[in-house]
Specification:
Length: 100
């Protein structure tokens, strides 16, 4: 069973992070002043890739965004792919945004 890692919103670096040993998988974002958040890039270090960590990171980020009442614009292909597999998250996407 995979570990449950704590999501960190690193506002200074504009990214959500998980801290796993010496590695920091992350999703970079841009927040607008009108309640939108753009997820621009997901990165999971190669040594910890392929273990479901990227999916856990996306799930936690989507829950965080939902909890803040933000509207999502998923610019990152990894995030878009995750939402395709979990369509219940389409409800937080900004109307008029298209996921790839």
């Amino acid at each position: 069973m995979e570990e449950d890692y704590e999501l960190i919103d690193n506002e200074k670096r504009h990214q959500y992070e998980l801290h796993i040993k010496q590695y920091i998988p992350k999703i970079e974002y841009i927040k607008s002043s009108n309640g939108e958040i753009y997820l621009t890039h997901t990165e999971v270090p190669v040594p910890i890739g392929g273990k479901g960590i990227g999916s856990q990171l996306v799930e936690k980020v989507l829950k965080n965004i939902d909890g803040q009442g933000l509207k999502l614009v998923p610019l990152c292909p990894f995030v878009s792919g995750y939402i395709h597999k979990h369509p219940e998250w389409k409800r937080i996407i900004l109307k008029g945004s298209h996921i790839q």
